[in-house]
Design a protein that fits this description.
about 230 residues, alpha/beta, Rossmann fold, four-stranded parallel beta sheet, 12 helices, 8 strands, about 55% helix, about 15% strand
């Protein structure tokens, strides 16, 4: 019998959903948690193009997609949902949705998203550089940062080419070269960024290579999301 705590990992495509599951498994091992967590892969879309269409669809359409993921999982006893996708969390109000699903199911439904982390991150910095997948995501991240610090200054970029390169399986070094990320990092530094935020959950794939280009702290929101997941499990 598997007595691990089930966690539904929701992301934009099968690739970043699997990355989210691997993230939870890795952090569970590093924390020495026993019995730990059992990630369940729940992609919202089949590929990047379908995910972009989802993000710009109407609220009823988005809610229907989420209901198709959440309702069966809740019925199977899942209570924790790990949204491993910045652009997805910026395109749908998961905080309100968690409350709605808790009322409907009579259970404590917990949803962990990158935007929740950014709302706290705004307290730590005055000026940040954000690498996002697209500008809808960058806008949502800026709103979240400003929720805790109205005076924060964000230098943001959105580039789906980086996401597509990761989905295509290019190596981190190839992606840095092909997408001109050394130039981007220098630009963010020149603008006075105090930290570089990975505003897409695909981007930890290139975090080590990004770290070689700068002395700035490189922030991965999944770290704080996992801490929240652990605290809820205690």
């Amino acid at each position: 019998m598997n007595d691990k705590r089930q966690v539904a990992v929701i992301a934009g495509t099968p690739v970043d959903t699997q990355m989210g599951a691997e993230c939870i498994e890795r952090k569970t091992r590093e924390a020495g948690l026993v019995p730990g967590f059992m990630p369940l892969n729940c992609p919202a879309s089949a590929d990047c193009d379908e995910q972009v269409r989802f993000q710009y669809s109407d609220n009823d359409g988005k809610r229907a997609v989420m209901d198709n993921i959440f309702d069966p999982a809740i019925e199977d006893g899942v209570r924790d949902f790990f949204v491993y996708c910045n652009s997805l969390s910026g395109a749908f109000d998961f905080d309100a949705y968690a409350l709605r699903k808790s009322i409907e199911s009579g259970a404590d439904i917990r949803i962990y998203t990158p935007l929740q982390v950014y709302r706290e991150l705004g307290r730590a910095y005055e000026r940040v550089g954000v690498m996002a997948a697209n500008n809808l995501s960058a806008h949502a991240i800026e709103e979240a940062l400003m929720a805790s610090n109205p005076d924060i200054y964000m230098i943001g970029t959105g580039n789906m080419a980086i996401v597509r390169a990761i989905e295509d399986g290019l190596s981190p070094g190839e992606i840095v070269e092909k997408c001109g990320l050394a130039h981007l990092v220098k630009y963010l530094e020149a603008c006075g960024a105090e930290a570089l935020v990975l505003g897409c959950t695909h981007f930890p794939y290139i975090k080590e290579e990004i770290g070689k280009l700068t002395d700035l702290p490189v922030v991965d929101p999944a770290d704080e999301m996992f801490k929240a997941l652990m605290e809820a499990a205690c």
